[in-house]
Input
Amino acid sequence: MELIDILLKKLNKNAVVTEIAKDRNPFKVLISTIISARTKDEVTEEVSKKLFKEVRDVDDLLNIDEEKLANLIYPAGFYKTKAKNLKKLAKILKENYDGKVPDSLEELLKLPGVGRKTANLVITLAFNKDGICVDTHVHRICNRWEIVDTETPEETEFELRKKLPKKYWKVINNLLVVFGREICSPKPKCNKCFEEIKEKCPYYEKIKH
Ligand code: SF4
Output
């Protein structure tokens, strides 16, 4: 976990946290994470801001017309399907969870449009519980650093649950998302990377010649 420690020291103070993440409101974290699937981060931020001006809680989501909701979350990817799922979600939250977002991974995974990435993000960000949110950045970098050797983000999450000490669980997503966007992107910008990381990076060792 040496590379994670180095990165934590380098980025901790400067890590960018989104407005939604800062808010820590379970409803907003859940909805904006569902919207973020197959959607650029900037678009998710913009769409979420627009949406939460009109839809502040489960009752608002229940009452809004599906077409109006789809228009509000446009241009997020698959906005029509997401609007349909969000309407179903509102009904389930109202009927089965007293209008509240559940605070366990198992219950969150039963909700429409909620996969492991979303469920883990909600329990860590909104409820401050242990979870590991693995998106494509976390998956890619953990493989490059040979912390795991996996094919899918889901496999990465299960491997990390075995290997990663708990103190890193809540921080790894934000840390590697920031690093993955700016430096260790799909086409890595190794020339911009921190020297201490470059020296120990197994992937850089393979590609530098
Ligand atoms: Fe990623 Fe390159 Fe830095 Fe390794 S050296 S962490 S591959 S950017």
